[in-house]
Amino acid sequence: MKKRLIIIAVICILFSSQIWSDSFLWEVENGKNKVYLLGSLHIMPEDVYPLDDRIEEAFKEAEILVVEVDIANADQGKIQALIVEKAFYKEGRNLQTELPAELYKAVSEEFEELGVPMTQIDIYKPWFVSLNLGILSLQKLNITTGLGIDVHFLNQANEKEMEILELETAASQLEMLSSNPDKVQIDYLQYTIDDYEQSKATYMDMLDAWTTGDTEKMNAVTKVKMLELGEELPGIIDFYNKMFTERDEKILGKLEVLLNNEEEKVYFIIIGALHLVGEDGLIRLLNEKGYNIKQL
């Protein structure tokens, strides 16, 4: 009997700890307005669904969904045209002519392993190659962009005919990625290749951090790691500043507009999880501004 009670007690403790671990969701208030701020991984495994009840309940309470980019309603033709303009080399240049020979060889080997011939990749600039390499490596693990948190809630919002706002645009994101100098793009591609073998482990660490609301772990396995590698690849620091520091300052301003709106509204905001964590992340920036903020 005692043994049975001990087993039941252990199960209860384990079950309770799972329920009451933090989520990657914050409630931010400023007077009348409330913002639910959800950190997102844009690429998710299928078994993450259904989501934590706290997340789904917060979404049900919200009147307006806010995302980085409303990809569900984006003009795909315009995006394709921008990619052709920003990602393709012009005549006379290609990836092989622009990359150091050793890096080009490493990139070729990785894409060949993924079953993609370099004839399809040579036309792209380094920033777009980095992006595709990351996506393809996760798709190989049966993890796809179609299961991202933002897509999940965009689909629900469209079904409910809910108002949707954007923090950025597809054009601004493409401009941000493509406007880095060649050296910065090449250094980031080198970083992507160097980290490729660890990409699965890194992603699983990120997923675990997201599931348990562990902001320190999320920061450690991503942003801290990137900054450390910046000592060897200086272009990584420039990439980091443009990807996170500069963008987050702009996004902070837009969040403050919503928080200080004279209308009494509840917003459900989805933004990449890495933008929330770290010394320069939005959670710290909002705290420094004096908003009432708590992790749920």
Features:
296 residues, 6-stranded mixed beta sheet, 56% helix, disordered N terminus
Description:
- By secondary structure, the chain is α/β, with parallel strands linked by helices.
- It has a domain at 21-86 and 143-171 and 197-295.
- Helices cover 56% and strands 11% of the residues.
- The protein has 13 helices and six strands.
- The protein has a six-stranded mixed beta sheet with strand order 4-3-5-2-1-6, with helices on both faces.
- A hairpin with a 2-residue loop joins strand 1 (25-30) and strand 2.
- It is globular and about 60 Å long.
- The protein starts with a helix and ends with a strand.
- Mean pLDDT is 89; it is low at 1-19.
Ordered list of secondary-structure elements with their pairings:
Layout: H1 2-20, E1 25-30, E2 33-40, H2 53-61, E3 64-67, H3 76-87, H4 95-98, H5 101-113, H6 126-139, H7 149-159, E4 163-166, H8 170-178, H9 182-194, H10 199-212, H11 215-229, H12 235-259, E5 266-272, H13 282-288, E6 292-295
Parallel strand pairs: 2-5, 3-4, 3-5
Antiparallel strand pairs: 1-2, 1-6
Low-confidence stretches: 1-19
Radius of gyration: 21 Å
Q: Beta-strand level of the residues, as a percent range?
A: 5-15%
Structural class: alpha/beta
Q: Give the strand order, joined by hyphens, for the main sheet.
A: 4-3-5-2-1-6
Please, what is the average pLDDT? Answer: 89
Q: Which shape, going by the Cα principal axes? A: globular
**Helix and strand string, N-terminal first?**
HEEHEHHHHHEHHHHHEHE
The total of helices stands at 13
Largest sheet: 6 strands, mixed
Number of strands: 6
The helix content, as a percent range, equals 55-70%
Cα end-to-end separation: 37 Å
